[in-house]
Protein 1
Amino acid sequence: MAATSLNVGLIGLGTVGSQVAERLVTGQPQLTRRAGLELCLQRILVRDVNKPRAVTVEPGLLTNDPDLLLDDNDIQVIVEVAGGDEPMHSYLERAISAGKHVVTANKVVMANHGMQLLTLAAEKNVDVYFEAAVGGGIPLISTFRTDLQANRIERLSAVINGTTNYVLGRMGTDGLALEDAVKEAQAAGYAEADPTDDIEGFDATYKLAILGSIAYEISVRPGDIYREGINGIEPVDFRYARELGYAIKLVAHTQRHRGRVEARVHPALVPLDHPLAQVEGADNAVFVEGDLVGRVLLKGQGAGGRPTASAVVGDLIDLARSIRRGVQNRPSFTFDDRVGVVPMGEVVTRAYYRIRAEDRPGVLAAVGQVFAEEGVSISSFIQKDAWVEEKTAELVITTHPTEDTRLQKARERIAGLQPVRAVSSFLRVF
Ligand SMILES: NC(=O)c1ccc[n+]([C@@H]2O[C@H](COP(=O)([O-])OP(=O)(O)OC[C@H]3O[C@@H](n4cnc5c(N)ncnc54)[C@H](OP(=O)(O)O)[C@@H]3O)[C@@H](O)[C@H]2O)c1
């Protein structure tokens, strides 16, 4: 007899989980019509069953015993919206091994163990959906899996962390210091109490690992990706960048090279007319270039309970449809392990230097000589604010594209020049 329902075990009832539960409970008739099966919430795993919740669910559904979901043969799909590596990785592995489908919003698990989980799922003939793991409600994974399949993806650049984009925006428009902008982001609900993962670029690295792996069908691990956070940027950098025609963004970038790919996350000067420069507030955007499709921009709310629940429940409906049709809807991704990531030192990029130096003759010549000796060609130079009493001035220099290792060597050597007080800022130019 054909199935009439799909039984769901939900892990997590926080920001995202409560919105998922709410939609499953209140949106039932419409979801059933679209899915062709009734989506039945069977059980919800949380840490604390007594905690007040943003959503009303039958108290009998809540448990803090994972076995009641993972060992229940009636539960066909585990929807994981809890987060973190362990124990969620083990729970999902157990679920797949037991023949359950998985829908997850967990970028850490998918970035660290996605390839193994997808391989296991293929063996067990079940599906793993993870649209919500990257870019909240923006349809990214499904776009790669279906609409862009005919393409050879050449490059992908993204503003993929809403917290840092909000913080950089506030520093740029109102001159806030980083710490003050972070405090404001926390008060507005855009940043966690501990913002390290966002500010230091880890979150963007997990997301780029997932996107890069899918875009190129290779295994890009978070540890392979060059990562730099936004810590060193000062409000004055935004002013100088704007004068030069740039915004400052935390950019996640990956690009195809012969037999290898580039994968990096760092703050960068982005030309004001580039679509990524126009991503405001906590929004996310992914700019993809494929050989057939050309350039595509996917933009929207990259986080938040409701947009993320939109992706989770969308995955669930897709899964229900494929079960109803009796087909495995989506081919598993295949990953070529032989393709490596280009070390950052070999990446060719432009750079911006802000240098504090004594305001006297010969300084510019000394700096210029270092660049010349390191094979770095200067694209623009401006002498900025001077501190008359200290007899120092700020030099702002941008370069033409050069191997990163040379740019770094020049930075070190310039910092060591006698009349130079500091290389106060070094940023790549996109
Ligand atoms: N929030 C967003 O905007 C957003 C956007 C995209 C993706 N995501 C991803 O979605 C997932 C959930 O995020 P969230 O913001 O909803 O988190 P959250 O508000 O902190 O909620 C986490 C939920 O998971 C439960 N939980 C955590 N660890 C558990 C454990 N070991 N055993 C059982 N239950 C556990 C918690 O239970 P208690 O309530 O009892 O503590 C809570 O209900 C994460 O992977 C996150 O990266 C979130």
Protein 2
Amino acid sequence: MRALVTGGAGFIGSNLVDFLIRKDAEVVVLDNLVTGKRENLHPSATFIEGDVTALSDARKAVTGCDIIFHLAACRAVLQSIDNPLISNETNVTGTLNMLIAARDEGAQRFILASSSSVYGGAEELPTPESAPLYPRSPYAVSKLAAEHYCRVFWEIYGLETVVLRYFNVYGPRQRPDSQYAAVIPLFIRCLLSQESPIIYGDGRQSRDFTYIEDTVQANFLAATTPTSDCAGEIFNIACGEVHTLRELLNTLGDILDITPTPHSTDQRPGDIMHSHADIGKSQSRLHYTPKISFRDGLTQTVNWHQEHGNLFSRK
Ligand SMILES: NC(=O)c1ccc[n+]([C@@H]2O[C@H](COP(=O)([O-])OP(=O)(O)OC[C@H]3O[C@@H](n4cnc5c(N)ncnc54)[C@H](O)[C@@H]3O)[C@@H](O)[C@H]2O)c1
């Protein structure tokens, strides 16, 4: 397999690159390093520093690749609320560029990193892929638009597209040092530095936290499953079980042998109360099985933070 991973210097993309190289794939990475880090780049991957919003960069990166994993994105909901044009440009125009390049260069399959945010807090829990969609942020709108482009490129041009809707991915290399950092690295950093973690809302919000290894596994399955089972399809990729933010904090406290003292404040715009995936379709069609338990995943993540805390600048 010769694979392109856009966003391959980022959290999920770089873990995927490492896995593909262990599987003997030839890997090209396209990344503009806006949030990705050089230290995440695998030495055996061919790195193209470039931008998915430039069609010429997209074409250069796709050349000779049969599988495209498209993960490059502005991934933060709050960033999209602050600057919807940037998330639209990166996530919609960027995806369209990658699809055009993949079509023109004769790539076989295109796998999109989409997001559970397209459901916008579904009433049906656990939520199947067929649930009504109600994006509540510019980020979620951009991911939904990208999903539709994928379907259209399968239906019109025959490019095999597979959409993966990730649910709250966490694990090593997810960083706490950005104003848009995700909850797990933020909680871990607070606990390790003896600060009070902030909980937005009452802490009863629940999430289907998915360990990075399971997300990587899902990408590999999306690349290797027969066309008839996955082309033009959408799959929830999650753990399939939920935990509240308070449970999350208490489990982290338990792992670190610390009693957390959270500070509560107002819920944030674009936040939803509950998110829980029905993963039946991924299980039956992709043969996806989440393997890492919540506690084991958090323990491995805490270990990584303890080893790499010195990488993070305070912002
Ligand atoms: N982390 C999650 O919980 C989660 C949940 C749902 C969906 N996703 C999706 O998964 C993907 C990866 O997310 P992540 O958490 O690894 O984020 P990340 O920020 O670590 O990775 C994104 C990567 O894309 C690169 N990038 C951004 N804009 C680019 C551009 N214009 N051109 C080239 N490269 C660009 C960044 O430098 C970075 O390396 C994103 O598409 C995100 O929307 C993530």
Protein 3
Amino acid sequence: MIWPVPSKRSFSLTKPLLFAGLCLFLGGCRPEPPKLTSDPKQNFYLQHVGPVLKENCYRCHAGMNRKGGFRMDSRSTLLAGGKDGIAVVPGDPEKSRILHVVRRENAWGKPMPPDGPLTEGEIAAIEQWIREGAVMPEAERR
Ligand code: HEC
């Protein structure tokens, strides 16, 4: 039996080119670093909170998706919360439903995200962000 031997050339070029093409197609292999501002509190959201919410929550709570009547892609909807009322009280993490549901405290609602917990670091970032006033851009870029 004779095995077809692929030419070296096709191996050395085709794969990297395909891979590069796929990366371009997917809009880049790495997420774009957030564009920072002159406000450290705004930057804390852009670097440590926004990416966590986008990655773990937006598919159910942004744009057309409003599970529980709750949208998180603008500051006003994020503060307003959903069918169970206010989600974020700036300056007061312990009154903020969003923090309790990510801590998976059932008394405050269904645990979020439903399919598994955020890391402790991510939860701590959300807590600090609320304590410092929940500063974020009014309309979030998706
Ligand atoms: C797979 C979909 C899904 C994901 C992902 C998800 N949620 Fe939810 N969320 C829901 C559903 C469904 C409800 C309504 C639950 C209920 O019936 O009370 C809800 C409700 C909520 C509420 C309460 C709204 C209200 O007033 O009733 C908060 C706060 C919340 N989610 C925060 C989050 C946060 C923060 C994340 C990310 C860390 C997240 N969710 C990720 C599906 C999701």
Protein 4
Amino acid sequence: MQPLSDKPAPGWAPPLDEQDATGAVEWLLQFASRHKASDVHLQLDREMCRVQLRLDGVLVSVGELPGEAAARILGRVKYLAKLKTYVESLPQDGRIAGADVGLASDVRVSTYPAVTGEKLVLRLFYEADQLTFGQLGFPSEVHTTLEQQLAIRSGMILLTGPAGSGKTTTIYALLQRLLETDACHVITVEDPVERVVPGIMQTEIDPERGLTFAKALKHLLRQDPQVLVIGEIRDEETAAMALRASMTGHLVIATLHAGSCWGVVERLNALTDDPHLVAGQLRLILNQRLVRRICTDCSGSGCGSCFDSGLQGRVPHLEMLRVDESKREAIVAKRLAKLAPTFSFEQSREHLLGQALTSETEINRHNLT
Ligand SMILES: [Zn+2]
């Protein structure tokens, strides 16, 4: 079940004999894209180049490129990304047009001078990535509660979890679901806009020009939204604006950095210094992680499409706190230890293992229960 480390991955066969490396670069990117890798890492290590893919959040070695071919391939990548091919001692950022390498989306390229040689990271994007609400894979209890809460046009739904835990995907899926049932006016303030969702008004903050979350919100409230999505509540001003919006008949969906559901309440209390207001407006908190899913092609025994790891794709592992009357009292009294989740990580673990969606090792890797 462990990702392979030394031998090349199944299907690893880049064409290395060409003089201009055009085919090799296309082959590499299409290989990565076929496996839905989010990134390709090309790390020069003296005489050779190590190739790794980030698959479902985990870096997996897939093969090596010999010295001369590696130099041609890295040079070709930099050329396509419109970088200075002769510069190896300074970091550079560029973009390869998807059409130039036979992909549907552009590839972002970043180079960095490491001590053993240049390191290139190629980030891939996927158009069809956005999951629908039903495809998120939430346990039915969480799914039903979310659906009920979405129908109410006031109060706050907050999401937390580290970077890459699927919060944005969840929010976009919730918005799509919302638009299916009711064509309401949705405005988002994001940093940055990660995906364009038809039917909603998305805006991006620009702190360098003075457009912060708080400033954008102040103006956007005059645009008459019914639902407001805030990329992240990270300061007092934004927290105050978000609460004011939710009090005045807007559904507010936002993320906030915390390690647990009760941690969200603690942080919001600290940002606003008004537990009464927080208790009155908070309706639901989701604390989300992503765990790798047992490969559906081989049921976990290991095959070519999961690189013998037995795992492919990801599924949410989460806790949920529904703020009801008793929880409100606990928030006001600042007895946050009383805020037991309505759906706990233990229940999530039981659900994931009961449905054979992931492995025990994979859940334990996240160290949550
Ligand atoms: Zn498999």
